[in-house]
Amino acid sequence: MKNEDAMFLAEAAAVFAQETSLRDACSAVVPELANVVNARVAFVALRKPDGLADIIACEGLGASDFRRLEARIVKSSVWRIFAMQQPVAVDDISKETALDFVSFATGSRLLIAVPVIVDAKIRGLVAVAFERTVRVDESRVIIVLNAVAAMTAQAIRLSNALEKAASQTANESVHRSQRLKERFGFSTLVGNSSQMRAVYDQVSQIARTNSSVLLRGEAGTGKELIAKVIHYNSLRSKRPFAPFSCAAFPQNLLANELFGQTRRGRIEQADGGTFYIDEIADLPNDAQKMLVDVLVRNEFIRADNDERVFTNVRLIAGTSRDLEKLVENGEFDRELFEKLALFTTFVPPLRERKSDILLLAEYFVERLAEKHERSILRISTPAIDMLTAYHFPGNVRELENVVEHAVLACEANVIHGHHLPPTLQTAEESGTEVRVTLESAVAAIERDLIQDTLKSTHGNIARAARLLDSTERILGYKISKYNIDARRFRR
């Protein structure tokens, strides 16, 4: 082997070791292969599952001849290599109907090809063609071609392994995506009120599109949950969902956190997926304008180095503030508002959908009881009354916290009023006594217990008295004292 051959093969091996893409590696090596053996044309062809050719790298042919070679080589004598399983030489390709164009275009005559063998099966070939005037040492050429073919085969093995790993990862991703889709399906949006039914309708419509969405509503109403439902029921469901709260960072750090400087920003990390930005009104002006570029051109200019960054994200924004007023005052970018407001969903506060409180409370009890390993079956009637009487300034988020407090405080299988936080038992919140005394606390527990027992006996006072180990006369007195209407429990 000549020194130049050895140097070429060493360099080719380094290329194949560094490149993870088979096409890129062959595209880098094939021109050098043609040069080292003094060939006019060199190419690597693989046979596709349907039997057609895939020329993954070629040197010496123009674009039209490249496409013609890919179409015709399967009809040429060179393709016999798959049956012969050994090197093939065509003395004069100008006499081959399928390959004569190569001779006419390049002046080539002799073509030598060797098989690319992967796991005892021929997957393709490496070939070179020489001009008529070139003296060719066929033995030397075959040695060099065999070495390149062996490197190509190894690269194919690596590519197959990577594809298999990617396929497994993709399957895992599909299963994960399916689990997330089930977890954040439309059933996640609990509520039967007319306001929530309107939200369901809007979300089901917008989820199927790629439009930006503006979610408006008070803090704690569940805007991020709705954003997740939109994402996991959209075409982007297999890509990332990236939530971001402007309230979690100082204003001077928001642009850097979103768009990055020394590292990739949050928006880039969500590329291909959905980016949810909460309290968007808190964004500084420069970040608002960069966000407009993302929405209009799928790009932004990084402020610190003028780097143009391309990104493809769906933007869902949440706000609890009056954006129209902020726009009028010049505190919020008008173009950004107009882009976001193309589709707007208003998420109602919990106090405006009282009928959903029980549904949400029961949903949270089931989920949180499982989380904390408690066997809680239901919420007592007095506790339900206290929940529905409360105005929940923190909305759904506060209700979830209240239920979790009750689940942790409850040692039995029924949540009673005294298991709820003190905030639900003050005059400001629920109309009970201003000062909680021992007598009033005991009375509250007693009232709860009586009402809950009457509920279990469907208003049967005699049976309730027996369950409470009391007498019908004493229980009747207590019912009158606490102004309890036993008839409401009958059915």
From the structure above, extract its key features.
491 residues, alpha/beta, 5-stranded antiparallel beta sheet, 5-stranded parallel beta sheet, 20 helices
Descriptive notes:
By secondary structure, the protein is α/β, with parallel strands linked by helices. The chain is 49% helix and 15% strand. It has helices at residues 3-18, 22-36, 63-72, 81-84, 100-106, 138-183, 194-207, 223-232, 251-259, 266-269, 285-297, 323-328, 334-340, 355-371, 381-389, 395-409, 427-430, 438-456, 461-467, 472-481, and strands at residues 41-47, 53-59, 88-90, 108-118, 121-131, 213-216, 241-245, 274-278, 299-301, 308-310, 314-319, 344-346, 378-379, 414-415. Strands 2-1-5-4-3 form a five-stranded antiparallel β-sheet, sandwiched between helices. Strands 7-8-11-6-12 form a five-stranded parallel β-sheet. It has a two-stranded antiparallel sheet with strand order 9-10. A hairpin with a 5-residue loop joins β1 and β2. α1 runs antiparallel to α2 (22-36), α7 packs parallel to α8 and α19 (461-467) crosses α20 (472-481). The model is unreliable at 427-435 (pLDDT under 50).
